[in-house]
Design goal:
The chain is of the alpha/beta class and about 200 residues long. It contains nine helices and seven strands, in the order αααββαβαβαβαβαβα. The strands form two sheets. The chain has a five-stranded parallel β-sheet with strand order 4-3-5-6-7, sandwiched between helices.
């Protein structure tokens, strides 16, 4: 195996993981990469990834100290859309404490703007909202070639067969009944690093 092959076998770190190793905020890390100060690789989807050796060299050159441990983290971006603010904010904390990057909005009108700015991987979408309901939001996401790849998991306090069939028909993967079963939510999301809350 030559040096290039060995390099390809090394795991790449997400911005969240790299920022944790350098003990800075992810936005700081991204700024360094954008200015060309820190070497980054681009995935096919346009996401930045970092080799540990590049982070070590960067830290050495600038007198920075690396963290002693690498916390489990995720580059998973989740948008919560629910008009129940307390519930939406609970999900932000619940998933954020498990390594996801999470933001919330509280109506279907704002959902479109948030999707454009935040570029989520998954939308957790309330089915029944005033104005634009979850079915319309999901239909719009799946009709747009720029957003149709986003996974949609619906949530409803009225889990009838008709409601669940309607949201699945417009492209949602699943429809979870409220109150949400936490384990079922994590299973539906499917990211193993979201299984346990971060400590310390």
């Amino acid at each position: 195996m030559n040096a290039d092959d060995a390099e390809l076998e090394k795991p790449y770190l997400t911005p969240t993981e790299a920022a944790a190793l350098l003990m800075v905020a992810p936005v700081t890390l991204r700024a360094w990469a954008a200015k060309g100060l820190l070497r980054a690789q681009a995935t096919a989807g346009g996401h930045r990834r970092f080799l540990r050796r590049d982070l070590e060299r960067f830290a050495h050159d600038r007198g920075l100290r690396l963290s002693d441990r690498m916390p489990e983290s995720s580059d998973l971006r989740v948008l919560v859309v629910d008009d129940d603010r307390l519930f939406a904010d609970f999900l932000v904390d619940f998933l954020g404490n498990r390594g996801a990057q999470v933001v919330a909005c509280y109506d279907g009108f704002e959902a479109g703007r948030r999707v454009e700015r935040f570029a989520p991987d998954i939308v957790l979408l309330d089915l029944m909202m005033p104005g634009i309901d979850g079915i319309e939001v999901c239909r719009g996401l799946k009709a747009d070639r720029n957003t149709r790849h986003i996974r949609v998991l619906a949530m409803t306090g009225y889990p009838s067969e008709a409601n669940m069939a309607a949201i699945r028909a417009v492209g949602a993967e699943d429809c979870l009944a409220k109150p949400i079963d936490h384990e079922r939510l994590l299973t539906a999301i499917g990211s193993p690093v979201l299984r346990a809350a971060h400590v310390g």
